[in-house]
Here is the input.
Amino acid sequence: MPDGTPVELFTLENANGLTCRAITYGATVTGLLVPDRSGRPGDVVLGHGSLEGYRTQGAYMGCAVGRFANRIARGRFTLDGTTYELPINDPPNTLHGGSVGFGKVVWKAVASETPGGPSVIFEHVSPDGDQGFPGTLRVRMTYSLTNANELRIDYEAQTDRATPVNLTHHSYFNLACGGDVLGHMLQIRAGRYTPVDGSLIPTGELARVAGGPLDFTEMKPIGRDIAGVPGGGGYDHNFVIDPGGPAPALAATLTDPASGRTMEVLTDEPGIQLFTASNLGGRAAAKRGGTYPRHPALCLETQHFPNSVNEPGFPTTVLRPGGKFQSTTIYRFSAG
Ligand code: GAL
Here is the structure.
């Protein structure tokens, strides 16, 4: 880091030839090598070529997102009678925890071996008042590369004052390891989504996806209805995962017919943001060379709903002293 703080890189390898690389800057996944149907490994996540890229590019590639994933309307919320002001880093709102969120700090980390596979345990203490949020927040994220071919993220947080918490992981996936993702097949187990206003703040309604471009209840190619998505920039929507199953339950299934790779996303979070990376088209594709096409990847960000802290009808994101935030998301890979 510019101030001399060292950044460490951890490489996790499971028993079946999957490899995950993660760095302490932003608890960021910088590489995820997964075999295709013929056993050939390929890197299924986008990334930068150097630490400098991660520090300066602002696309949240592969990083941890907190304290509050997605948007908080007008950078403001009121909790127990006190109003808190946050940085407006995505005018007119706060995005992904403010200007210096959890993807922009250096975490502490230790490696650990378990019978199920290797892990790296990332820890960070966000001080009281960090980015305007109340309370000292102690966060732990454990990334495990299991021998069942899963990248498993276990989130934990504790606070000494009431504060909103919404944590996610921001990998941009491309199971073909190149090109765009319009031919990927996607299913999302969600009959509803949270419609938004012009600045991407939910209206509070849980609308039905039925039949429209947001209907992923049956497998369909991502490109099939993308031109009909309001706004014209592709998908950037929070889906309300159907209840059911013992947590963490299946939320989404993504398949690349060409390589045969499939990724299932399981979570105990109530929502999942599908983002088809409209921000990257034409930008330099550091890891792969050249420039990114339109929709070069997609994010599937498991989360509480955007702006929950200002929307009493949404599941609560408030963590209180003595309580513990715990959540698990699993990205499970296979090929066939
Ligand atoms: C996503 C968000 C997008 C965009 C992106 C970062 O999580 O839904 O609107 O902000 O992060 O570029």
